[in-house]
Amino acid sequence: MSSPILSVSCLSKTHGEGESRVQALRSVTMTVEAGEFAVLMGVSGSGKSTLLNLLAGLDRPTSGSIRLYGEEIADLDDDARTILRRQRIGLIFQSFQLLESLTAEENVALPLTIGGMKARDARHRAAETLECVGLAKRRLHRPHQLSGGEQQRVAIARALAIKPAILLADEPTGNLDTKEGERIILLLKDLVEIQGQTLVLVTHDPSHEKYADRIIHLRDGHIVEEMLQPRNNNRILPTAWNRLPIAA
Ligand SMILES: Nc1ncnc2c1ncn2[C@@H]1O[C@H](COP(=O)(O)OP(=O)(O)OP(=O)(O)O)[C@@H](O)[C@H]1O
After folding, report:
1. Residue 40 pairs with which residues in a beta bridge?
2. Domain ABC transporter spans what residues (predicted)?
3. 183 Cβ neighbours under 8 A, 6+ residues apart
């Protein structure tokens, strides 16, 4: 049996003030269940990134509630949101945001050591996670020695290495060609199906819908359609590590 990991209620966000004021999200209510692959679709400007940034704690809503495992995160202060992102939320962006001076393994290990893990343990966890995304043999390469798809795999490993409660991916295939992009989506799908990872994916690409359990369409900051698709295999529920309470 699955349970909601993320519950969003009446979430609104207004950017800017006066004449440049834009209401990017209007009273969005949605849930994502543990171990689910949710896709957020919508044309440019529909509010997808605004919503993902709020879920990630990168920005604060104008009003409304965001609960992660029942704990309210919408009104956390800046420090608490930083801790939330470091410990509980795996973020993947279109631009891979890897540090060029570091190897793949060092890039993956860095957030772990920043979070207080011993360097040796962090390197071990990084190597393990890179193996899980198919990059065991490339772990000592620097970003410029890797293809775009491989760099995105490193970024996915970096997001996974903290053992996040939820993975949030904003257009992760946007900088990749079709073939590499498809491989990345299949990797994300496997993380959901094989490891029980919970994923929210923002995408423009309707071909990604076929992998999703839940498809949410946004238009002008509203949810205009939500669909659930049955999955053929049994859903794997998250393991104990990604059900831990959010540390403050
Ligand atoms: N920081 C900001 N300041 C002012 N307006 C913003 C800001 N961020 C987003 N907006 C506006 O909010 C609306 C929603 O933008 P958002 O980036 O969330 O949409 P999106 O669906 O992710 O678009 P895209 O697919 O192009 O990334 C747009 O009208 C956008 O111009």
Report:
1. 202, 216
2. 6-245
3. 149
**Number of Cβ within a 10 Å radius of residue 69:** 19
Contact between 93 and 170 under an 8 Å Cβ cutoff? The reply is: yes
> pLDDT tens-digit profile of 192-210?
998 899 999 999 889 999 9
First to last CA, the chain: 28
Ligand 1: residues whose CB is within 6 Å? 15-16, 22, 24, 42, 44-50
Q: Per the confidence metrics, is the pTM higher than 0.95?
A: no
Q: Which residue has the tokens 């930083």?
A: 82
Q: How large is the average pLDDT for residues 164-190?
A: 94
DSSP 139: T
CA-wise closest residue to 107 among 117, 96, 95: 96
At 103, is the secondary structure helix, strand, or coil? Answer: coil
Taking residues 225-232, report their average pLDDT. Answer: 83
Task: Compute the distance from residue 39 Cα to the ligand 1 centre, in Å.
Answer: 18
Q: Where are the domains of the chain?
A: 98-162
